[in-house]
Amino acid sequence: MNGINQELIAQLIVLAFLIEAVWETLKMIRQDNKFSIDRIGVTIVALLFIFNFKLDLFHAVGLSDEMTAIGLVSTGILSSRGSNFIHDIFKKINKKE
Q1: How confident is residue 37, by pLDDT bands cut at 50, 70 and 90?
Q2: Of 78, 42, 46, whose CA–CA distance to 60 is shortest?
Q3: How far apart are the C-alpha atoms of 71 and 74, rounded to whole Å?
Q4: Helices 69-79 and 37-53, axial angle in degrees (round to 10)
Q5: 19 phi, psi to nearest 5 deg
Q6: Residue 39 pLDDT more than 80?
Q7: Is the pLDDT of residue 1 over 60?
Q8: From 58's CA, which of 12, 21, 41, 81 has a CA 20 to 30 Å away?
């Protein structure tokens, strides 16, 4: 592709994937007009750990030069899904790059 920054395209694809994953995770908090106390609890615990240890997935994959609040919150939301989900995210990100 002439004149198109391949790295920028790859970053956009990864960003779009992560945004969709965050949204799909947030939708799990309320289903069938009921809040899931378990989902809310695990999300809060994940956010506490992420902020305490300052882990930013967006920074880790090169989408940001520094850690940001949105990166920390998004990482917390994503990590609330568990280790298998995070592992799957990294597998998909590596395929796109």
Answers
A1: very high
A2: 78
A3: 5
A4: 130
A5: -65, -45
A6: yes
A7: no
A8: 41
Residue 74 to residue 61: CA distance in whole angstroms: 13
- Residue 61 · residue 69 · CB < 8 Å: no
Residue 75: both structure tokens together: 């990482």
Alpha carbon distance 30, 39 (integer Å): 9
Per-residue pLDDT at 50 exceeds 60:
yes
Gap between the Cα atoms of 79 and 4, Å rounded: 33
Tell me the β-bridge partners of 34.
31
Q: Which one-letter amino acid corresponds to residue 36?
A: S
Q: Tokens 């609330």 — which residue?
A: 80
